[in-house]
Amino acid sequence: MKLEDAFARVPRTQYLPRHQHRFARQDVALDIGYGVTNSQPTTVRNMLRLLGVRPGHRVLDVGSGSAWTTALLAELTGPEGEVVGVERIPEVLAMGRAHLGDRYAWARLHQAKEGVLGWPAAAPYDRILVSAEATEVPADLVAQLGYDGVLVLPVHGEMLRIEKHGRYSFVPLIT
Fold first, then answer.
1. Domain of residue 120, CATH code
2. Residue 39 known to be catalytic
3. How does DSSP assign 121-155, residue by residue?
4. pLDDT tens digit sequence for 136-167
5. Domain presence at residue 149
6. Fewer CB within 10 Å, N- or C-terminus of the chain?
7. Is residue 173 situated within a structural domain?
8. Domain count along the chain
9. Does the residue 169 lie in any domain?
10. pLDDT tens for residues 34-69?
């Protein structure tokens, strides 16, 4: 499925609290409560373009929030794929589960485990999307990528796309 088709099939309005519905078409991040936002549509579109999800991919959605990105990813993977969303705030997770409903049997949402980044129990993933800013590239998430996997995340205000190509042996880098 093409990215624009996924956006057409997954209206943002359905993944927002009722009081934010009137702002759904605005290209801004919207507050969904608990210090969490539903990301700006242009940002989501750009992140998904960088991620390059294809049908059949296994995808991890870190910071699944209202489940809008989870639903978009489910559209892109199709039923032959799998999407695992992880959210740390129980109330936001409940909101995401209510929004997602049972529309995508191949997508599920989990409560993040204290001190654990991502969802290593279901690794490896073909793609990992992170919807929260990191201070550095998290090695724990890179470890959850399969070979030829792609990780997209913001680090210090810059959007990074990291590709994993396999194992190699090198001498240590010394500064």
1. 3.40.50.150
2. yes
3. GG--EEEEEE-S-BSS--HHHHHTEEEEEEEEEEE
4. 999 999 999 999 999 999 999 999 999 998 88
5. yes
6. C
7. no
8. 1
9. no
10. 999 999 999 999 999 999 999 999 999 999 999 999
